[in-house]
Amino acid sequence: MATPPATTTSSWSLHLDGARCDGHGICAVCCPERIYLDAWGYAVTSPSPLHEGERSLARARRAVAACPAGALALVPSPRSRRGPALPGAVA
Ligand code: SF4
After folding, report:
1. What spacing in Å lies between the alpha carbon of 54 and ligand 1's midpoint?
2. Mean pLDDT for the chain?
3. What pTM did the predictor assign?
4. Pairing with 37, which of 6, 18, 23, 54 sits 20 to 30 Å away (CA)?
5. Ligand 1: nearest atom to the Cα of 26
6. Do 68 and 22 meet the contact criterion of CB atoms below 8 Å apart?
7. Phi and psi (nearest 5°) for 16?
8. What is the residue range of 58's domain?
9. Which residues does ligand 1 sit against, CB inside 6 Å?
10. How many structural domains compose the chain?
11. pLDDT band at 80 (very low <50, low <70, confident <90, very high)
12. Closest C-alpha to 66, from 37, 33, 28
């Protein structure tokens, strides 16, 4: 099995799987500056990246952990990825 290239990530984005979101609303309580609920109570996330050391990142991590539906994830922000370029990537 191939090992993915090592990357150093300093910023993250909140990814929401809208199909899994059940509208519990816990995430918006944990991280209100990056997650709000729409008119039907489903989560909406900010596209702004979260940087290491920011309080918002710690709160976003709590929101990811608290989501009972597993609908939230922190993924490396595309602009923060370092390391070998992937085949076909445009620099
Ligand atoms: S806690 Fe999870 S399921 Fe509930 S609103 Fe937030 S993302 Fe959706």
Report:
1. 22
2. 84
3. 0.78
4. 54
5. 1
6. yes
7. -115, 125
8. 18-80
9. 16, 21-27, 42-43, 67, 69, 71-72
10. 1
11. low
12. 28
